Every structure is written in structure tokens, then in C-alpha cells.
Amino acid sequence: MKSYLQEPEARRLPAAREAFINRKHYYGQFLHGYYQFDCVVDKDTVRSAKFYIPEGSIYNQPTVFVGVPGGTNPWSFMVESGWKALSDQYGLYLVLMEARDEKGWRNDQADMDYLDALNNDLALRPMFCSFQANFYCAAYGDAADAAGRHSRKSPRAYAAIALLGTTGMSREEQEALETEYTRTEGVTYSQVQWPVWLCRAADTENALREIDYYRRANHSQAEETADGSRRIWLPKEGGTIDEHWCAKVIADCAPWTDCVNRCYSEAILTELFDGIYRYPGTNNGALRRAGNIYDRGFQKFSADVWGGYYADRRDMYRREWYVYVPESAPKDQKIPAVFVFHGAGGSGDEIADRIGWSHAADVHGFMLIMPTASEPNEVRAISDMETNNIFRAMWNTGYPQPERPEDMRFIDFLYDWLLSRYPADPSRIYASGQSSGGMMSWACAAYRPDYFAAAAPFSARHIDIEAAERGEAQRPPVEESLVPIMANLGCCDSAFKGGFTQARELVDYWCGRYGLTKKWADYSYMDNGTSCSYKEGLITHYVFETPEGVPLLHLTETDTKAHATWPSECMLVWEKYFTKFSKDPETKVLYYEGQPVKG
């Protein structure tokens, strides 16, 4: 393909120390424009990629990895293919993957290593805030086979992929994928769903084998629909609330050069990529169709909130949060509410779908309030690069700093705002979250017990990981009111290896504070249910009760689960735990199944 457009000079990424806090646009993207990224593959190899970040973009927007054909100018291809215009229109981030030299893509191990390193680096937010759950790939020409081979052995790399110019799949690769196991026990690579768009020049044996491979992986129906030269297979009905069967197979027979235009790229974006996410779940990720949150009724709010550091209140931050009141919520009575806190690098607009609280809210008719955390302006060295934690919003439970607002003060603001704005039931307000948000859930029980009737921390075994790591003094817990806690860790969580085996101090604190009949040492953990209260399917339960039998601390471990929360676990927490507890908003007395709990 001839490239005739003048490529502007790709700017170097700024140094991480140059990032700055803008209190008036607290969650605005720091960069915009066209940038050079040097991807360190190994100590001897650095390969080039380009970033395009549209002006006015915000955090955690979809990221499209564009495989640029060998010998093609990346800027020109981005423009000719229409991806730049789509990026500007929809706020997408673009990552332009480049061949190593003028000979193009080889589809060899060196290419696999580059694609793997680049995908991993983008998941770590290299000076802008990308989010792996909504990574997508569109690869063209000789890049298509390399991207296809890489993705099939990297289940969490993308949520969906378009291979435009694919030559298909060899029998040797197919047999290997059908016999080799992924990092998820008992699951082969060929069993991982892949929403896929294939464009091949002819129906060769390898091309048809590739189509059949994806149809089997995606639980495709036998029936197909046709759209001109395209054939479309939809998935059968099935799946679970934790992983949907939602992967299309779209196959087009045409020269790949016919795909290099905005109309074709927009079809890929809207018909394949849009609304599909590969959330953390197992080590392969969990494919789910979420759809547009605003179409479903989510509302975004923002306000200037005092950070708490300067007495004259000059440190006002433009904070944001999201509220969801499902159609199933009662119309003529107070509505229960769950505060849902995102993990490090997340945001309020993604967390409810990612961990499944939105599904539970739809089923049971309670409302959600989902705030976005504060941002520490500090350099972070990781994976042979430096970035800044401005792009990794996370919760803090410490006191305010000159450039870091106090998040507990933000919770005070939101609690008052919620009760003044919505018919929320003050006796049934709960807290839950994932990772950093799980720590915030522990903190809500420790530092704001009067607000919450119960808490459910996921993927967290500290009240404040930042304070735990830095040795900073934490604020003393407030012990005026009981807050029952149901906490969960995944048995395959690489962030918290060993699960509750490493949480003795935390567990014994709550057991002592509440006068529970068991302590941490009364159970053994991570032992497949050998010493526990009971086991249900993949979940092992450890229950700590008051002398009257009230389970004020309930720990669970989930087999096969990584650093994540599953929608089925949110349903479990709501149905088996939160619904049993309420708290009188005046007296702060806790009730369990309608009866007051002795404090």
C-alpha cells in the first residue's frame, strides 16, 4: 500500500515527573496528540510503537491496537484506515503496532515477544490511563497473522480482534491450541471465546480452518446471517452471569486493502468491539457484554469538593461519581444503596459492570453510587519504564496532603449528598469494592461505621495498602457502631498470594473488637476447604460469630479466581449477607434479621 500523507513528528512522551495535578479538571487526560513509544522487549531489544490520544479524552476509554502493515507509514495508515477520525469522534486511544523493519512482520517469536511486551506495558498505563478490560485489536496485511497467533495464546490481551488479511490457521497450530492448557486449570486455549472479524483473500483450507476454530470457541449457532460478502455467526444462548456467550464470528472474503477506510473500520468498531469487555475473572479474563452505561440509566455527577488540607479551602478538587437507579428499584418507598469502590487505575464509570454489582442491582432493585478515587502525583517505575500514578487513581484513608485530597472526607460529602438527593434508605446503606476499593470498604467499616449497615471488601486484606507499604500511621478506627463484614479473596490472586493466611492481624482485630467466638487461628486457609465453616462449589466459607450466633465477620475464598470479583459473588453478598443487616440511622443500633445485635 502506498502512503502519501505527510507524517508529523511523533513527540516523545514527557518525563513522569512533569505530570501535574489540575484540580479543576482532576480526571482529565494529561496528554493528547501523536507520540513515540519505545517498547522494551528485552535487555537487547527495543521496538517502536506510536500512541494517538485524542484531545479532550478522559480516563479508561477503549484502546484499539492497530497492526500497521509492514512498509507502511503509521500516521498515514491511521488516517487512511479511518481510525484517527474514529478516535477523534469517539474518544478512543490508538496504539499503532509497527513491524521491526522494512521487511515487515515475520509472525515469528520475536514478533510474539514484541506484541506481548507492548500489551503488558499498556496495561500499566504508560503516561496515560488505558484500561485492559477494553483493549481491542485491528491488524492489517502481514500484521494480521502475527496478531492472530499472539492473541490466541494470550487470552487476556484483547476483548475482541479483527484480522484483516489473515491467511488462516495451520493444522499444527490448531492441534496445539486444542491440547495446551491456559493458566486457568482445565481450560485449553481453544476453549477461550474470541469475538473476531476475519477478512481473507480466498477460502483456502487454512482460512476455513480458522473460521471453524473460532466458531467452536465461541459456541456459534449453526445458522448464519449474511451481509453482502460477510457471513456472521452469532453465539448460542448460554453462559453464566460471570461469563456471557457473546462472541460473534464475522468472516469477509475480500482483499484486505478493501478494508482500509473509515466506513469499514467503523463497522468493526460498532458491530464487534462496542459493548464487549474482557474483565478480570479467571486468568483468562471473563468475556461479558455490558453495553452503554448511559443508555441503561447511569448518571454522572461532579462537584468541587474540599480536599481538607488548607483551612481556607483553596484545595478544591473537581471530583466525580456515578449513580445508578435500576428500573427494578421501588417507586413508592426508600431504596437500599451500595457504595461501590473501584480498584487502582479504575474509575466510577466502569466498576459496577466490571465486578457485577450492576447486575445484582437490576435483579434486586437497589441503587448504586460509584465514586472515582484520588490521584497521587508520584513517579512509578515499572516494566522498564517510568509513569506517574496520576494515571492510577486509588483510594487513600490517610489525612489530606498538599496535592492529595482526603478520600474519607469525600465519602462524608457523598453520604450527605446521597441522602439529600435520592430517596435512599439510610438504614440500608452498604459498602463494597475491588482491590484498592476493597481496602476502602474495610476503611468504611473502620472509620465510618455510623454510615454503613455492612461492608463487602473483595481482593483486599488491608485497610490501606499505601499506609501498609509505606509504614505511615493509620487513623484510629471508630468503634461506636458495629459493621458486619463479608470479605473475599481469590485463590489465584497474584496480588495477595496466600489469601487470608497473611491476614491474621486484620482478622483478629475484628474478632476482638466484636467479641466473636472464633479467632483467625481456629481455621486454616487456602487448603481447599479442609478446615472451614462450610464449602459451596468453588467458594470456601469461614464464619466468625457473636455468642448469639450473628456472623459479624464472614471470610470467603474462591477457587480459580484471580485478582477480581465475579458477578455471582455480588449476588451472593446481597442475597445471603447484606439483606440480613440494617442499621437504625438515629440510634446506630445494628439489626440482624430484624433483631438488634448486642454491641
UniProtKB/TrEMBL annotation:
UniProt GO MF annotations: hydrolase activity
A Pfam family this chain is assigned to: Esterase
Gene3D superfamilies named among the record's database cross-references: alpha/beta hydrolase (3.40.50.1820)
InterPro entries: AB_hydrolase_fold, Esterase-like, Plant_Biomass_Hydrol_Est
Keywords: Hydrolase, Signal
SUPFAM superfamilies the UniProt entry points to: alpha/beta-Hydrolases (SSF53474)
Protein known as: Prolyl oligopeptidase family serine peptidase
Species of the source: Candidatus Enterocloster excrementipullorum
